[in-house]
UniProtKB/TrEMBL annotation:
Residue ranges of domain Oxidoreductase molybdopterin-binding in the record: 108-252
InterPro entries: OxRdtase_Mopterin-bd_dom, OxRdtase_Mopterin-bd_sf
Chain segments annotated as transmembrane: none
Name of this protein: Molybdopterin-binding protein
Gene3D superfamilies the UniProt entry points to: Oxidoreductase, molybdopterin-binding domain
């Protein structure tokens, strides 16, 4: 994939649905543990105390920022409630057209063939490691209307259908005591998530968008939809899934985006 994008200015033409975003944010802030975290991270002095860095030169500032980011990962993982559901919306609120985003432009979307496609499961897995699309479509399917939030400054509501990821992992004999689940994509994108998020009831291995087979631009043949996470933690065009205890990182995460990436 050429012409990687580093930064993009939000498109002002996109309907941002400001009211619902503000409502979601207010609900978030109502949680007492969020307020506590906000207060604790508010001052530079507090950051120095937390990170044990004196912030007198660029190197120590970088070290501090790295420490705060991994502190955030740990704190977010602790605060993540596996039973708390992301908001769902009526179909009338679906954003049309749903935006496309990737680290390249839309004319470079990978063309993954359906017939030869195989999903590979590797790492800490005891059961079935190779899945065809037909086999995935034969599993029980469900659908959800949720909000996708991109760190670049837009959000949109969409409807995705597919297999509950927890069901799939159990069926495939995945070792759910593994720490991480990593995703490798046909466009060489990759990301990874923690096991509680993988097993969250709203985390879906999606095969459809808005009732039809997932179009190429939205991730054919499959996108992992995680409504409790930001857009960059929702991999499209997945070709391999690895269960592992070794920290896998991710395409954007390795360039500084927070690894936990909760919304
Ligand atoms: N394979 C792959 N997955 C990806 C990306 C990508 O570049 N490649 N970009 C991520 C980002 S930053 C966003 S916001 C969403 C966009 O998904 P959409 O095109 O369905 O809106 O895909 C995520 N998953
Ligand atoms: Mo994104």
């Amino acid at each position: 994939m050429n012409s990687p994008k580093r930064h993009r200015i939000p498109d002002p033409a996109l309907p941002l649905d400001a009211k619902s975003i503000i409502k979601d944010a207010q609900n978030e802030l109502r949680l007492p543990q969020r307020r506590l975290l906000g207060k604790r991270l508010l001052t530079l002095g507090g950051l120095m105390l937390l990170s044990g860095c004196d912030l007198t030169n660029d190197k120590s500032v970088n070290t501090m920022l790295q420490k705060v980011s991994s502190f955030n990962d740990d704190a977010q993982a602790l605060l993540f409630d596996p039973r708390k559901l992301a908001p769902t919306y009526p179909e009338s609120m679906i954003t049309r057209p749903f935006p496309f985003n990737a680290y390249y432009d839309i004319d470079q979307v990978p063309d993954v063939g359906a017939l030869n496609y195989r999903l590979e499961l590797n790492g800490l897995v005891k059961g079935k490691r190779i899945w065809t699309l037909d086999q995935l479509h034969a599993l029980p399917q469900e659908s959800q209307v949720t909000r996708h939030i991109c760190i670049e400054g837009w959000s949109a509501i969409g409807k995705w259908g597919g297999v509950r990821f927890a069901d799939f992992l159990l069926l495939a004999g995945a070792d759910t005591t593994a720490k991480y689940v990593a995703f490798h994509c046909a466009d060489n994108y990759w990301t990874s998530i923690d096991m509680p998020t993988a097993l969250h009831p709203q985390t879906l291995l999606t095969l459809t968008y808005d009732g039809s087979i997932l179009p190429a631009k939205y991730g054919f043949p499959m996108k992992l939809r995680i409504p409790t996470k930001l857009g960059y933690k929702n991999p499209k065009h997945i070709v391999a899934i690895r269960l592992t205890n070794a920290f896998p990182g991710g395409y954007w995460e390795n360039q500084g985006y927070n690894w936990f990436g909760g919304s």
